[in-house]
Amino acid sequence: MTKEPSAAYCRCSTALQPESVETQVGILTSFCERERLEIVAIYPDEDVSGGKPIVERPGFKQLLADAPVKGFKTIVVVSLDRLSRDTLDLLQFERVAKQHGLRVVYATEQFDDTPGGRMYKTIKVAFAQHEREETGQRIKRKNRETCAKGRWPSGRPPLGYSYDVAHKQLGIDADRAGDAENVFRTYLTCNGNFTHTAARLNTMGVRTRDGNLWRDDTVSLVLRNPIYRGRLHYADIDIPVAGIPVVVPTELVAQADVFLRNCKGKRTPVARRCYTYSSMLTCGHCGEGYKVHVITTDRDVGYYCRGRKEAGICVAPRINSSWLDGLVAEGLQRALIAERDAILAMHDPASQSTRRDTSAQLTRLRRAAERYREMYAAGIIESVDELKAKLADVNASIAELDSKPSAVVSLESINQVIDTLSAHWLDSDVTERRHLLLAVSPRITVWACEKRIRLHTTLAAGDIDL
């Protein structure tokens, strides 16, 4: 009998946990052999908290992207708490999994697709969330006590420092101590400008503690860290500690403090304004976002790629909103017309009849699944394999019917927006244009060197290349 392809998902918060990724893979391998499942790919998320949203984790993002390519419809997980420790996030994830046609199987736990089974699952994840929050509170209390005694509380030490686990003391990291001093010296050379400091450090080949490129915020975090001033800070505790080794000379820190106190390097507070494409643009060359750069008029705003100006890893030139407006208007019209056509097709009498038939089929299939379970409980169906085979066929039919698209917005609103776009897009208010973009296309990828863009729409047309 052919084995069903499946994906194994593993998560652990720290390497010290007993259920490491390797242990989970072993459990899932044995489980899949018994259940006639074939693991086609393993997606680990190490050092990821159970409270982090599931769909935002790197491993799970890759899983969702590979599902249509590798052809698996089943995700196997060791237990519920390895998937999530947040009740609301689990409920939202199940909705996303249903949209992708995926089902989740737990190796050490079993949940029926019945009201009682769903309630039991919700209770289990609520207890897991409570345990996570209680553990977090205990760790915070312990770290406060540790910091109050003058010892490093927890986590990785700052740039230029190492941590002696045996003696629970900070020491000097000989390999990175010079980098910490370089940050302060470069900041003074750049007259207290965070952006110029980050760019120069990247050019010099200096990297952050994690080996990444510098940005305004990472430069600011190092310069303001009290550890370089002989102080420990955790939560509401900020105390001087005599035993902290000096990594950055005291005179350098004092000179940097003069710039920091005078607010040099900070962005000048300005009145909050609305820009049409603010926070919507992503560079197709390097993946970084665009920021407002030059404001020539209320209608023409310039945007620059952060990967070029701040990180120095991109060659994308500055773009203007006047260039974007024409392409975006055309793309929105195409998206809305496609949506209107989809709605008209759904309003067709034949289509309505088909949807009624689909609803009736779904009802019959769900009743059939429930009847099979009752027959198994009564002993009419004797084999578990026979029950699974019957349920697999029913669930496959249900998933196929559930995947049929439905309308997102009404036909009247679509026609109204199309008319507005045709006549008043370039003359409309910036706020009105931005609200429409957020509703239809919340993200735009820009290939500035190639003079093309892609609208990632939420309508039936999907992504539109222009």
Question: Which structural traits does this protein have?
Answer:
466 residues, alpha/beta, Rossmann fold, four-stranded parallel β-sheet
Sum this structure up briefly.
With 466 residues, the protein is an alpha/beta fold. The chain is built from 15 helices and 15 strands.
Structural commentary:
It contains 15 helices and 15 strands. The protein is of the alpha/beta class. It folds into four domains: 127 residues, Resolvase, N-terminal catalytic domain (Rossmann fold, 3-Layer(aba) Sandwich), CATH 3.40.50.1390; 101 residues, Putative Large Serine Recombinase, Chain B, Domain 2 (Hect, E3 ligase catalytic domain fold, Alpha-Beta Complex); 140 residues, no CATH class; 53 residues. The chain has a four-stranded parallel sheet with strand order 2-1-3-4, sandwiched between helices. β1, α1 and β2 form a beta-alpha-beta unit. About 3% of the residues have low confidence.
